[in-house]
Write a structure and sequence with these properties.
This protein is an alpha/beta fold and 311 residues long. It is built from twelve helices and 13 strands. The protein folds into two domains: 150 residues, Rossmann fold; 139 residues, Hypothetical Protein Tm841, Chain: A,domain 3 (2-Layer Sandwich). The strands form three sheets. A six-stranded mixed sheet has the order 10-9-8-13-11-12, sandwiched between helices. The protein has a four-stranded parallel sheet with strand order 2-1-6-7, sandwiched between helices. It has a three-stranded antiparallel sheet with strand order 4-3-5, with helices on one face.
Length: 311
């Protein structure tokens, strides 16, 4: 029987792509005051970002419950005896633990492998996609798992924030730092390594920040696939895709929307580039070496870890 692939909505997988690859997406919850929505089910990205801008209450997000995962696993067990559930990094979210608990609740109807991707957004999405393609081709569970193990350390991700005020609203940075960033028009850059967020510098202008995203592609080795994720700037994402397409196969460049789970912290104007390399040893360009040598306790730049759980 075909191995089935499950992930969560923090992967930011476009619905059509997830359906095409047979990937089941378990939604994260988004709360505006007393109103709770399922990401991608009860609230669209456009509606979310409009509420994010207009609502006097800053939203929060929480991981799917163990019961949510158990329901998905139980349903899939009627059509397969092997499931791989790939979740957002456990260092930033409780979703992985919920998936583990959901496996226990679902019982032993089939074999369920729960994987900590150590990634987020389309970094996670690219891992799920690679696994789903092998599964669809009829490959065995060990081969699918080996593909995932190889993909995880070869995901690279870099994002640029347009504003710091949503980090401020969520209590992530102090007012003085947010005001300074606004005055200087500083665009913070964030990357992920070993499942945790790191500051990767800052750009004086948005165009310079986007240039850093393009440089990530230029300096990468043996790229297998690329994803460009935007919150509210489709034209900007399209322009970057065209530019990258001049040096890389456009058919392997995907464009996606940043969903509520990360949009809560990034806000409008967030732009992320994720890519998957084939090699196991990733070369870091000179500009990234210094901030990544030692894990900063993110308050160094006053940009702490994102937390997808309720406070």
């Amino acid at each position: 029987m075909t191995v089935r692939i499950v992930t969560d909505s923090t992967a930011d997988l476009p619905p059509q792509l997830a359906q095409q690859l047979g990937i089941i997406v378990v939604p994260v919850y988004v709360r505006f005051g007393e109103k709770v929505y399922r990401d991608g089910v009860d609230i669209s990205e456009d509606e979310f970002y409009q509420k994010l801008v207009d609502s006097p209450t800053h939203p929060t997000t929480s991981q799917p419950s163990p019961g949510d995962f158990a329901d998905v696993y139980s349903k899939l067990s009627q059509e397969t005896d092997e499931i791989v559930s790939i979740q957002v990094t456990s260092k930033l979210s409780g979703t992985y633990n919920s998936a583990l608990q959901g496996r226990e609740l679902a019982g032993a109807r089939c074999r369920i492998e729960v994987v900590d991707s150590l990634a987020l957004s389309m970094g996670l999405g690219l891992i799920a996609m690679a696994a789903a393609r092998l599964a669809a081709a009829g490959e065995s569970l060990p081969i699918v798992m080996e593909e995932i193990r190889q993909a995880i350390p070869n995901i690279r991700l870099l994002g640029v924030f347009d504003t710091l005020k949503y980090l401020l609203r969520g209590g992530r940075i102090g007012k003085a730092k947010a005001l300074l960033g606004s005055i200087l028009n500083v665009k913070p850059l964030i990357t992920i390594r070993d499942g945790e967020l790191f500051p990767a510098g800052q750009a004086r202008t948005r165009s310079k920040g986007i240039e850093r995203l393009f440089e990530l592609v230029k300096n990468a080795l043996n790229i297998q696939e690329i994803a460009i994720v935007h919150s509210t700037t489709p034209d900007e994402a399209s322009s970057l895709r065209e530019r990258i397409g001049s040096i890389f196969d456009k058919k392997r460049i995907h464009t996606a929307r940043l969903g509520p789970a990360l949009g809560v912290h990034g806000g409008p104007g967030t732009l992320i580039l994720a890519l998957r390399e084939k090699i196991s040893s990733i070369r870091q360009n000179a500009n990234e070496d210094e901030p990544l040598k030692e894990r900063l306790p993110l308050p160094h730049l006053h940009i702490p870890k994102l937390n997808f759980s309720h406070p």
